[in-house]
Amino acid sequence: MSRSAAVTGAGQGLGFAVVKQHLERGDRVYAFEINITGDLLALARDHKHLRVFPCDLASTPSVEEAAAEMLANEEKLDFLYNIAGLFRMEDRCGLADTDIDAGMPMMQVNALGLLRMCKAALPLLREGSVAVNVTSESGSIGDCYRDVEYMYGMSKAAANIASMILQNEVRPRGVRVICFHPGWLRTQMGGPAAAASPYSVTPDESAANIIRYATHPETIPEGVYFMEHTGKPLPW
Questions:
Q1: Residue 168's CB: how many other CB atoms inside 10 A?
Q2: Nearest to 27 by CA among 63, 75, 67, 77
Q3: Residue 54 three-state SS
Q4: How far is Cα 154 from Cα 72, in angstroms, rounded to an integer?
Q5: Are 220 and 213 in contact (CB under 8 A)?
Q6: What is residue 132's predicted lDDT score, i.e. its pLDDT?
Q7: Rounded CA gap, 177 and 197, in Å?
Q8: CA 132, 135, 136: angle at the middle one, nearest 5?
Q9: CB burial class (10 A; 0-12, 13-18, 19+) of residue 177?
């Protein structure tokens, strides 16, 4: 039986991999992306169950407009994947060189954008729905080792606390919210070092692991809400 999934950041990398793998499962997919890519449009031409929408997560009206068709057509959203994110290479510096104002778009997308999409989809999150928020181990305070990337880490920590508050709110209706660190992805955001490292992971591999947990949330231990794509729990 086909189910429904919504994916932000669907145009490339991990988001695109999640879209593809849910389509392979026969699911209906709503793909949201600020800049629609040719790969995403080509995929939509080949799959009648894929709907693609331009969506700027930094804009509440844009998110509401993008989600309107999904809200009109679905009674329940089985899976919500918040994957879209921003990162600035320029922020790999100490506080003295950190441009705080230039980092604000990361807060708007990584934290508030995630929350905007969760709010838009909230009427469809019902018994058995799973909201997957792809944050990052960089948002872990208990396991923080960084001395750079202030704004990115802050945005991911904010996304984590938003996810936990949302979990507390929707738990009574049987909805599961889980934050994933996707691994060091071999993508443009991961950078050249990721492509050359044996410790990095492809988007397809990370997507397969995340989808396995999303489709079988009963395998996630009770009380675990933040984990690596491999299943290893992470401290807040």
A1: 10
A2: 77
A3: strand
A4: 35
A5: yes
A6: 98
A7: 31
A8: 135
A9: buried
**Strand 226-228 vs strand 28-33: parallel, antiparallel, or unpaired?**
unpaired
pLDDT of residue 188: 72
CA distance 216 to 231: 12
Exposure string for 106-140, b = 16+ CB within 10 A, e = fewer:
bbbbbbbbbbbbbebbbebbeeebbbbbbbbbbbb
Low-confidence ranges of the chain (pLDDT < 50): none
Amino acid at 235: P
Report the relative pairing of strands 79-82 and 50-54 from DSSP bridges.
unpaired
- Model pLDDT for residues 128-172, shown as the tens digit of each residue: 999 999 999 999 999 999 999 999 999 999 999 999 999 999 999
The one-letter code for the residue type at 23 is: L
What's the confidence (pLDDT) of residue 46?
97
What sign does the dihedral 213-216-217-220 (CA atoms) show? negative
Say if pTM beats, i.e. exceeds, 0.85: yes
pLDDT tens sequence across 103-127 = 999 999 999 999 999 999 999 999 9
For the chain, list the strands marked E by DSSP: 4-8, 28-33, 50-54, 79-82, 130-134, 176-181, 226-228
Q: How far is CA 27 from the centre of its chain?
A: 18
Q: Is 58 helix (H, G, I), strand (E, B) or coil?
A: coil
